[in-house]
Amino acid sequence: MTDIVFITDIHGKFDTVYEIFNRESPDYVLIGGDVTDLGQTLDGVIPFMEDIPAPTFVIPGNCDNRDIIPVLEASDAILIHRKSIDLGNITISGIGGSNATPFSTPFEHTEEELTAIVKEVAAKTGKNRWNILVTHAPPFGALDEVAPDVHVGAFPIAKIVKEFDIICCGHIHEQKGICELERRICVNPGPAYNGNYAVITLDEEEDEPKIVLKNTRDEVEVTEE
């Protein structure tokens, strides 16, 4: 059995995120981007990654400056933007940044650029028991509404969801939830700066993953011995 904590949209509120790891002891941590917030100093990124008590895999978000790439590469975390990594029977692939927004944030891709990145990542991803895509932008049609029936997800990402079992996304803060797209599971835990996170449990004996959305304000379950 493997427990994974997925967090996204930290926006520099590192102190809030530390509380997650006072509650959870995962085997791995996935970070879905927006580690910092629109030009915020990068000075705290490496210390933050050093303090996460599990192997950590990270992508940048649209609110991260592109200068964060070498910082993440120098940190204790493993940058998976445009990469795919095998961890035993788990494969984790990453697509950082986002499709275009009305706000011209620092790490956006044109439709053509994102299409090329998506094809690159799909080509690198081999079939495994569990295939997880960590993408900052959600696929079009899943957890991507900014108003009723107004979807802003990425079309290129939607085209490859069938290649994965779980799509971990963020970006749209108001779309905390779990849903299915093309019979694949999509999860947005909500912004970590508000204490939100997801725990994904993969059990070799189970056909489906167990995914629970949590918040640091939730009561901690106490088990009697």
TrEMBL record:
InterPro entries: Calcineurin-like_PHP (IPR004843), Metallo-depent_PP-like (IPR029052)
Single annotated GO MF: hydrolase activity
Residues in Calcineurin-like phosphoesterase domain copies: 4-174
Family matches, as Gene3D superfamilies: 3.60.21.10
Domain of life: Archaea
Matches recorded under Pfam families: Metallophos
Protein name per the record: Calcineurin-like phosphoesterase domain-containing protein
Species annotation: Methanocorpusculum parvum
Lineage: Archaea, Methanobacteriati, Methanobacteriota, Stenosarchaea group, Methanomicrobia
